Amino acid sequence: MAKLAINLTDLDRLEPTFRQKMLGRKLDLSRVVKVNNRGLIEPGVVFTCPILEAALICDIIRNNDRLCGDPPTRAYIFRQDWKRLRDTDVLTQVHEGKANLAPAIFTDAEIIIAPPIVQAPKRLAFGKRL
What we know:
With about 130 residues, the protein is of the alpha+beta class. The chain has one domain. Helix content is about 25%, strand content about 35%. The protein contains three helices and ten strands. The strands form three sheets. A five-stranded antiparallel sheet has the order 2-3-1-4-5, with helices on one face. It has a three-stranded antiparallel sheet with strand order 6-7-8. It starts with a strand and ends with a strand.
């Protein structure tokens, strides 16, 4: 089963409140993994939440980076060893209103194991749909 991690030093670019709300209780900060990326050792922290949730978080953060003109936050995938994802990789896709793992990145077995997440309504007001 695949695992995802995000680069520890890149997280400093996120606004602290956003970082806390997006990543709070979803990373194992007690264990930093070392990813060898073309001879450079990069520090990553592993997601503890379900793989689909981790993939969505990575996509949101990396898309925000792109919109700001920054290089996307480095993310890593573990199968037999840690491998850095390409800056252009998108980890999720929406199909029939549900978020799923992208088949270009994840195997069929990993996609079947991860239950889809229903897309949120466009607007919420005090917990009610509008």
